């Protein structure tokens, strides 16, 4: 006989099958049948990209690019563009899909050059991270890039994408500058961008008065 304090019986959740419901050129919809932690068989509607490569770890990259110039504040290079699924402009870090056989680092430098015209240097990369796990298996790696803005090739950067607007936001006022843009026009900010801004606001916060220390 089980006692009330006995732990619940649990199962390691796992996928039983994935059935294709619909497929387009870029995305597909599947019905995922899985066993949940209580041992019940359930289903989930899952969106996947059709472009995922077998030998790459993530679907795409996001790029946190810091433009460093003499006598200027360090600025984060942002892009504004119309996104059809949202029907409006978004404020995002530069980003893009990883090509066949390409590393996250190489994809980041390529996408940064295409979208903004800047030539950067990779200084860090995250592990594979998920983007919207309740909807899709889409993953990204965020690549941190420094740009030497004094370098002759970065003084007048020429982007290759006509409909992407490049916006430079100072790192030390990042969140308030994003808020200003949101006030001015109908624009949706990527959650990664806003969370980055909140982190920067904490990092740059300087209390006006020293807190009174308790004894
Ligand atoms: N879900 C998509 N639907 C489309 O109709 N087209 C799509 C989707 N995802 C990507 N693309 C196309 C658009 C571009 O021509 C290429 C490459 O996009 P990329 O620049 O790598 O990524 P984003 O900047 O994030 O669009 O794929």
TrEMBL record:
Record's family? Belongs to the Nudix hydrolase family.
Q: Under what name is this protein listed?
A: ADP-sugar pyrophosphatase
EC code(s) of this entry: 2.7.7.96, 3.6.1.13, 3.6.1.58
Q: Which controlled-vocabulary keywords does the entry list? A: Hydrolase
The species is Cyprinodon variegatus
Q: Name one Pfam family in it.
A: NUDIX
Q: Which PANTHER family match?
A: ADP-SUGAR PYROPHOSPHATASE, UDP/ADP-SUGAR PYROPHOSPHATASE
One MF term in GO for this entry?
nucleoside diphosphate phosphatase activity
One GO term (biological process) = nucleoside phosphate metabolic process
Question: Locate the Nudix hydrolase domain: which residues?
Answer: 56-195
Q: Which reaction does it catalyse?
A: 8-oxo-dGDP + H2O = 8-oxo-dGMP + phosphate + H(+); D-ribose 5-phosphate + ATP + H(+) = ADP-D-ribose + diphosphate; ADP-D-ribose + H2O = D-ribose 5-phosphate + AMP + 2 H(+)
Describe the subunit structure. Answer: Homodimer. Interacts with PARG.
Cell inner membrane as UniProt keyword = no
- Write out the GO cellular component annotations: nucleus
